[in-house]
């Protein structure tokens, strides 16, 4: 493109990821535009950012004034609280739909594996199958694995299709938390019903009372967290294995100039698992060598990458805001994507470097990308073809190659099951060591720091500073999604990073040999944090509901609607959840007060907002201390 169109970007100010910065500099030299450039040149609409705009019907769009939120109403009479809560609701509906559709795809695959229609995948973790089946009341003693699996399929299908009753995994919710939900009328029935009802209620002229809308927001978000997302995690573990700690390499240096580099980016693990088989097929490895390569190098990005990082230790090239930058290396011989967080801008950047971009999921086509449909009944047809095309691109490479020589190491793969095993057994007190160490104060509390990166803030910086501050104050950090890649690049997911922790947390980490920052999986695996929280309640000593725990959550650089759904399912489950960047509400309104204060008074968690990572840490630690005090374990 015409380089004069690109305003010179100060690349140091937009990211702390050195590899991404190097590639953004190269992109500028090459005249290639990325989302960082577009973010710099496109100012967000201030009315939209505050969610003070409604376009739910053609009498509008109606724009209210966030400086005087109650000064006027929309043409239909909708006030600011109705408008904001409806907008918020639709973000939750969309985010929950993404996770639940992902979970349903996993469940479809599981059914076809169990009934023998798909032979390319199998049940890899029978122990997990048994545990999940038992958790929803399925008899497992002296029964065939396939019968138990089919019963589990039928039970979990209700997560989506049930029209009355409670979703199956409600059985895993601590009783007091569940009691709160029942009292509020927010126990999800089935995800399809909740999302449909939320879309209906936010149509023009239906639900126009923000508290009533918020009840359905909570119900829908919970159908995501304890429904679709948890099903996606559990079924993926059953089919592909439950993660356990593995040494990994992250950053763009994992690309190899003399190899055929293939990147998988998106979210669903089945495409990547099939690609793993394809890149190891002797005939394709031979073809790569015949083309002059040393072999085939498979690398992950974003959450597909996080899934494979924690399960198989597959190298990871970078998080969401590095997906365009990685193409600028010229070293990527194919990028294939499935669903979610895939920028349309990738197509143009890929084209500039002669890298083929492949879409594979019928839900996600991109103008300029080649679509090769991924059929789970013949998965290798798609992934083999992509490998062949990548080899051909390697042979005919035209772009100059420049790979930032940066590789960071970390230990990831801390599923809840492993955390339980690692900190397993019980003390004389009868509590698990995790609870015991929280009670005795070595660990002050637990924080989930998760979520995206966003070009509206300096990439990775807020994540890294927040996490450093938390561990320094003896808060154990659990991570998923793009956030854990930011911390891996900063070197904090190694056991050696324990020296950065406060004395109590450091002692625990050194005794167990674990990092102070535990990477759990992809963004759909935030469900692992819910389960960890539920187990902390179950094992005792830390109160009776999730809301009692000395715990907090944060998504400091969030950008997606999925993040809002995740944030709200944590809030509805009882967790204080702080978001950064921006928050889609107008200050001083009743809806904001409901989200930021009143939900907590109803026995749930609450939302918080701060841009500055140190302020965020202060808010989270203050909350953890408040909970410690309420539990009588403050010293
Ligand atoms: Fe305006 Fe009401 Fe229509 Fe929204 S629903 S665009 S507030 S008239
Ligand atoms: S990929 S939702 S940018 S975490 Fe899950 Fe990353 Fe956020 Fe997408």
TrEMBL record:
Keywords: 4Fe-4S, Iron, Iron-sulfur, Metal-binding, Nickel, Oxidoreductase. It catalyses: CO + 2 oxidized [2Fe-2S]-[ferredoxin] + H2O = 2 reduced [2Fe-2S]-[ferredoxin] + CO2 + 2 H(+). SUPFAM superfamilies: Prismane protein-like. It comes from Desulfosudis oleivorans (strain DSM 6200 / JCM 39069 / Hxd3) (Desulfococcus oleovorans). [Ni-4Fe-4S] cluster binds at residues 267, 303, 341, 452, 482, 523. This is Carbon monoxide dehydrogenase. Pfam families: Prismane (PF03063). Its cofactor is [4Fe-4S] cluster.
């Amino acid at each position: 493109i015409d380089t004069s169109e690109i305003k010179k970007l100060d690349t140091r100010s937009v990211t702390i990821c050195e590899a991404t910065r190097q590639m953004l500099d190269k992109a500028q030299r090459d005249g290639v535009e990325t989302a960082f450039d577009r973010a710099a040149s496109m100012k967000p609409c201030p009315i939209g950012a505050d969610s003070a705009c409604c376009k739910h019907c053609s009498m509008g769009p109606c724009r209210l004034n966030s400086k005087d939120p109650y000064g006027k109403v929309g043409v239909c009479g909708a006030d600011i609280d109705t408008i904001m809560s409806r907008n918020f609701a639709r973000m939750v509906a969309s985010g929950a739909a993404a996770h639940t559709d992902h979970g349903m795809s996993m469940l479809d695959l599981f059914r076809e594996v169990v009934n023998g229609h798909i032979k390319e995948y199998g049940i890899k973790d029978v122990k997990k199958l048994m545990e999940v089946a038992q958790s929803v009341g399925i008899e497992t003693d002296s029964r065939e694995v396939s019968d138990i699996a089919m019963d589990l399929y039928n039970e979990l299908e209700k997560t989506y299709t049930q029209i009355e009753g409670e979703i199956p995994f409600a059985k895993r919710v601590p009783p007091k938390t569940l009691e709160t939900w029942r009292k509020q009328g927010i126990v999800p029935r089935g995800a399809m019903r909740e999302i449909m009802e939320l879309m209906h209620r936010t149509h023009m002229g239906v639900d126009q009372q923000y508290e009533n809308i918020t009840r359905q927001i909570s119900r829908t978000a919970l159908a995501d967290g304890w429904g679709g997302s948890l099903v996606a995690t559990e079924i993926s573990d059953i089919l592909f294995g439950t993660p356990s700690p593995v040494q990994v390499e992250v950053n763009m240096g994992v690309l190899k100039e003399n190899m055929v580099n293939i990147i998988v980016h998106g979210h669903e693990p089945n495409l990547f698992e099939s690609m793993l088989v394809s890149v190891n097929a002797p005939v394709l490895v031979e073809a790569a060598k015949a083309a002059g390569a040393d072999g085939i190098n498979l690398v992950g990005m974003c959450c597909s990458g996080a899934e494979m990082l924690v399960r198989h230790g597959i190298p990871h090239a970078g998080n969401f805001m590095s997906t365009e930058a990685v193409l600028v290396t010229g070293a990527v011989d194919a990028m294939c994507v499935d669903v979610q967080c895939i920028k349309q801008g990738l197509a143009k950047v890929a084209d500039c470097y002669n890298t083929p971009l492949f879409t594979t999921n019928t839900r996600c086509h991109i103008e300029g990308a080649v679509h090769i449909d991924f059929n789970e009944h013949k998965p290798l047809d798609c992934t083999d073809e992509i490998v062949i095309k990548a080899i051909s691109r390697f042979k005919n490479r035209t772009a100059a190659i420049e790979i930032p020589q940066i590789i960071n190491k970390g230990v990831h793969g801390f599923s809840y099951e492993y955390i339980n095993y690692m900190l397993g057994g019980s003390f004389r007190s009868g509590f698990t060591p995790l609870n015991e160490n929280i009670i005795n104060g070595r660990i002050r509390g637990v924080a989930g720091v998760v979520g995206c990166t966003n070009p509206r803030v300096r990439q990775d910086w807020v994540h890294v500073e927040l996490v450093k501050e938390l561990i320094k104050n003896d808060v154990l950090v659990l991570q998923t999604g793009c956030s854990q890649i930011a911390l891996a690049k900063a070197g904090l997911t190694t056991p050696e990073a324990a020296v950065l922790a406060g004395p109590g947390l450091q002692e625990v980490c050194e005794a167990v040999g674990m990092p102070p920052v535990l990477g759990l999986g992809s963004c759909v695996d935030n469900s692992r944090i819910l389960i960890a929280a539920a187990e902390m309640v179950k094992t005792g000593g830390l109160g009776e509901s999730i809301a009692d725990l000395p715990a907090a959550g944060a998504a400091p650089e969030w950008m997606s609607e999925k993040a809002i759904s995740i944030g709200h399912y944590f809030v509805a489950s009882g967790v204080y959840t702080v978001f950064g960047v921006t928050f889609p509400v107008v200050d001083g309104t009743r809806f904001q007060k409901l989200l930021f204060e009143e939900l907590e008074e109803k026995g749930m968690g609450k939302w918080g907002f701060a841009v500055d990572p140190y302020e965020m840490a202060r808010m989270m630690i203050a909350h953890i201390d408040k909970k410690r005090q309420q539990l009588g374990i403050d010293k």
